[in-house]
Amino acid sequence: MDIAKLFAPFEGTRDPRPLAIVRIAFFSGLLLHFAPSLIWLDVGYGRGAVRADAWNHWLFSHLSHTPSAVVRILAIVTLLALVAAIAGIRTRIAAIVAGLGCYAFTSFNSIHLQTLALIPAWAILMLWMICGGGANAYAPRASREREPSLLGSLILFQILLAVFFSGVEKLLAGWPGTNEMSIVLAYPRGFMVRDWVAALPVLHGPVMSTLLTWGTLAIELGTPILLLVRRTRIYALVAYELFFLGIIAMLEVPPLFYFIFASVPLLALDDAQLVSVGSWARRWAGRRTSSPARPA
Amino acid sequence: MIRRIFVVAWILLALAGALAHTVAERAFGHTIDLPLPHLQYGYVMFNANPKRVPVYTYARADGVRHGLADLDPRPAFGYKRARIALDAMFSPTYLRDLCNRALTSRDDQITIFIDGYQVDVDREHPAMATTEVCGGHR
Questions:
Q1: Position B127 in a domain
Q2: In this prediction, what percent of chain B has a pLDDT beyond 90?
Q3: I want to staple A85 with a disulfide (CB 3.0 to 4.6 A). Which of A27, A74, A179, A205 is the partner?
């Protein structure tokens, strides 16, 4: 067995742009997710605030004794670190500060911050703390040099694993027989689903829920594998992106969830595919900008 | 060499975490406790969903109903109602805290309406309805 070939995706270098896009999307998602709680600090972290313990119990117990001025400073430092990471300034240090801050505040009180998206977020933050990088494009001091492959490939692995095991969890929970999709689609206005989903009768029949059930399983179990195969990658990427676009369009889920899951698969594209996707995007953007403006 | 050891360790740990919350939970009846934060919970996305769900609204003295999310000053881009509903479902004391914080004066009174829908039976009409009142010299 050729060991070097096994490790090839984690060694060598890659185009810096996909990782820079992931950096901007991921840390923007974190900022959108954490900023409201860290700006309106007293609601979740003030004296007497209702709190929930979902992550680190030691932090949950001990942070409540921290003076409020210190908590305020920690919140500001965390927010600044997130902004620095988005901008691509000292990304490893920014990831360390932002990661520790976000984890501390989520452990302090998980109400308002708890989401499934935090599980992959912790993984990405840890990888960024360890590997650093991601600022060779779309950053003030971007060198445009190729990035080491390690960070991008491990982030890609982590997210595809999460998507694949979401499918496995569904199978173990009894999908497609349990008809869980029809339960979600039946939710009333004001709970989880967007208003148009609650209002559209065609979504509440058995045909649509069966289609969406099988579609979900096919995407979650299929695309993580098909994205790794060059020949099927672009088709899998389109299906995957439509799936996550569908989720955010239909369900009230945090933007952090979408920003992570929609951006990371771009890391699967190789250099030639990036050129193809880039030129397609430029053609598409050119067509849009050159089309005549509608009269007001 | 160190990089390769790190890659193998990371991949094995991630796989162990994923299996701990799927296969291990079914095989041994409990998950294996892995201390790293990203391995603490399983990768669940709507695999099992509650059939009885609440919809929260509130009214002040004028009786006009508003979405409960309007009581929370913090924005939540694109998921404010879902966030409030889940917070209230998972933390029973949260509703009272939210209500008390939203009172604007000593005489202000807020009534929170909780309409419970049994969605596998009737998604149009609530199966139960309760209220919770805060303020108003209570």
A1: yes
A2: 55
A3: A27
- Would you place residue B45 in the very low, low, confident or very high pLDDT band (cuts 50, 70, 90)? confident
Residue B117 lies inside a defined structural domain of this protein:
yes
Looking at residue B44, its pLDDT comes to: 74
Place of tokens 């109903």: B65
Q: Taking 70 as the threshold, does the pLDDT of residue B137 lie above it? A: no
- pLDDT category, A148, cuts 50, 70, 90? very high
CA distance linking residue A178 with residue A175, whole number of Å:
5
Question: Quick check: helix, strand or coil at residue B129?
Answer: strand
Range of the domain at B58: 52-135
* Contact map slice: A 131-160 vs B, CB within 8 A: 150, 154, 157-158
Q: Is B52 an interface residue toward A (CB < 8 Å)?
A: no
**ipTM for the assembly:** 0.90
Do the domain assignments include residue B44? Answer: no
Q: Do residue B31 and residue B76 come from a single domain?
A: no
Contact status, residue A82 vs residue A30, Cβ threshold 8 Å:
yes
Closest chain B residue by Cα to residue A6: B4
Q: Are residues B79 and B32 in the same domain?
A: no
Please name which of A9, A20, A88, A30 lies closest in space to residue A258, comparing C-alpha atoms: A30
Q: With 60 as the cut, is the pLDDT of residue B24 above it?
A: yes
- The reply to whether B46 falls in a domain is no
**Region B40-69 average pLDDT:** 88
8-state DSSP, B122: -
From residue A275, alpha-carbon distances to A18, A151, A187, A202, A280 in Å are: 12, 21, 43, 40, 8
Whether pTM > 0.95 for this model: the answer is: no
Contact A161 B18 (CB under 8 A): yes
Question: Is A251 in Cβ contact with B82 (below 8 Å)?
Answer: yes
Return d(Cα A94, Cα A107) in angstroms, integer.
Answer: 20
Average pLDDT over residues A49-73: 92
Same domain, B64 and B129: yes
- Are the beta carbons of B14 and A123 closer than 8 angstroms? yes
Residue A114 to residues A34, A74, A166, A261: CA-CA distances in angstroms?
A: 10, 19, 18, 17
The number of folded domains in chain B is 2
Work out the pLDDT band at B138, boundaries 50, 70, 90: low
